[in-house]
Here is the input.
Amino acid sequence: MLGKRTLWQNCLLALTLGVVLFFCLFPFIQILSTSLKHQFDWGNPSLIPIKLNLKAYQELLGLGKGAEVPIPETVKRLLDNPLLTKEAKEKILSRYRSTRDVFPFPRFFLNTFLLSVTAAGLSLLLAVFGAYAFSRLRFKGRSVIRRSILFVYMVGGVLLMVPLYQMSVKVGLAGTVWGSLFSLVLIYIIQTLPVSLYMLGNYFRTIPFALEEAAATDGCSRIQALFLIILPLSVPMLITVFVYCFMIAWNEFLFAFVFLKQYHDFHTLPLALQSLFVSKNAIWDRIMAASMLTLSPVILCFVFIMRNLTRGLTEGGVKE
Amino acid sequence: MASLKLKNIHKRFGSVEVLHDINLEIKEGEFVVLVGPSGCGKSTTLRLIAGLEDITEGEVIINHNVVNLLEPQHRNIAMVFQNYALYPHKNVRENIIFGLKMAKVSRDIMDARLEKVAKMLELQDFLDRKPAQLSGGQRQRVAMGRAIVRDADVFLFDEPLSNLDAKLRHQMRSEIKRIHRAVQTTTLYVTHDQVEAMTMGDRIVVMKEGVIEQQGTPMEIYLKPSNTFVATFIGSPSMNLMDAKLFPEHVEIEGQRIHFKEKIQRPDFLLPKEGLPIKLGIRPDFFLDENFASRGGSLAKINYAKIDLIEPLGFDKELDVQVGTQSLKVRLDLRTTAKEGDTINLCFDMERAHFFDIKTDKNLFIHPPIRPQA
Ligand SMILES: Nc1ncnc2c1ncn2[C@@H]1O[C@H](COP(=O)(O)OP(=O)(O)OP(=O)(O)O)[C@@H](O)[C@H]1O
Ligand SMILES: [Mg+2]
Here is the structure.
């Protein structure tokens, strides 16, 4: 029968899927597993921790005592060595001190969150008006402008980084924290806008224009029709676009690194993770727990999108 | 309530002119039906009035004000769209009161009107449903409700019944008329269904390819069509048009002389020349079987019509007959006993017959021919 798979084909399909899935998921599982392991367990290839260790999470989130890392016996013995100077002892000890002030995870989380939400919100707002104009208004050069926006993607981010930073230095933005943040938000908007415009524009085009005409005869201006009729009908797409922009900003490292490097208090999570990695706090369970926590909003976003991407919101309005 | 006037309206899409010099006047409270075949420009006319399309040339006048430059939302017009155009995310109640909300009508008045309209259209049980959960007929009524709930100056209906089954269509037809009688709002109603036009309009405007062919009461349109298009478009089955020649005392069809003296020699008619080729128009319903026709002064007769086909319709029968080489449709009552293959003599009232110019297709009694130069 047409489209019916044989057992053999089914097995092959399942196997392929399994391999691909494993390939994608293994790093995540590894991160999760390591973040939950005790130090003695790190070298163990098993993914299941012998003894569950939630300390890293507690520390990062500021829960519990945020206590000192227990000093291993070997280190203790090392410290007992009377030959060691006081400074050297301090240096070794500080590796095991509470890291709360060294790696303020909630702060970085909040930084990233606020930055991403601002960028995504502004990008969405601009995309709404832009996409509406592209899909509904007739003006000279519309299609040329619409297509040329995608040129943003012609040049890779790395190439743009230096000129952009130079520009913002020349304008005087890079000199201050807020100026740098502003530049960064601007860059995120520019990076996400083309795709946002494209997605929203295509979605708007599926909404029958007759609905706006009906709204107009019902007494709506164009803007009112946009906000009272078009946008409520586009909620799933608005959410999708917002989440897309949010995630781009959330994960972005390169520009954040360039613009925010000198402002330690304003580091975003990707930056912070990177510096955590190379710092004296580079303890595996903590790095992995921080990575896991950084990933969590992204995963939540995906779940949210899948829940909300219901079709057929415009059904029943006009007769085909 | 308001009067509505279209003055020398032209509409072009690019270089294509779809409306040619439309002139139309609708008095306060009048119900005018705009009828014409698909693509003739009916929807375009409505959209011009509503302000959804720009006017290329001419003026739309509502209540003696030229509204050409007024945005749709400021024209105070309620429109029922050909495709309903209900707001899919709002339930029936919100759909209906949306216009009132935009007009900032007070809550009490809004509720009262909603209740009245919902009752009138029997929508009470559906108020909380979304359009997608309604049948076509129910959506239709919601679209209607959204228009009539408002205190609009003019109602524009664009084929609001086109998607309904016969029974519901019939029901809605009388419903709309009843609503109009109750609210008395100036109405322009578009349809391509001539039965709707005949039954609903105070006045009918017949349109073809962007030109108004005739306007008048349903009776005028039916009994005095001004050209062959109106004659055949209105009425079902449509009017027979036979090739004929016009003489001072008779009409000649297929070599038959048909006595027509009383009509041709009327003082308001002037025969331009003997043997003028015309189209003779007679509606199928106006024929009588000679055997059952009472002799009257103005009765004319076509002999030897050969019956090709008889189609019984219950209360009467429809016949396809052949006169010489020309075929006619004829509707006779049940008494006729003739069978397929028989010949029959057909009578008709000559006052019900029309002469159309063979070139211009115009009705010679409405557009009398130019007096021949002496
Ligand atoms: N936006 C447009 N651009 C170009 N031509 C158009 C446009 N809208 C309508 N037309 C043309 O104008 C003519 C009239 O269209 P309109 O929609 O008014 O017809 P209608 O009488 O309402 O027909 P129907 O009974 O099928 O609804 C048609 O030939 C159509 O192709
Ligand atoms: Mg139409």
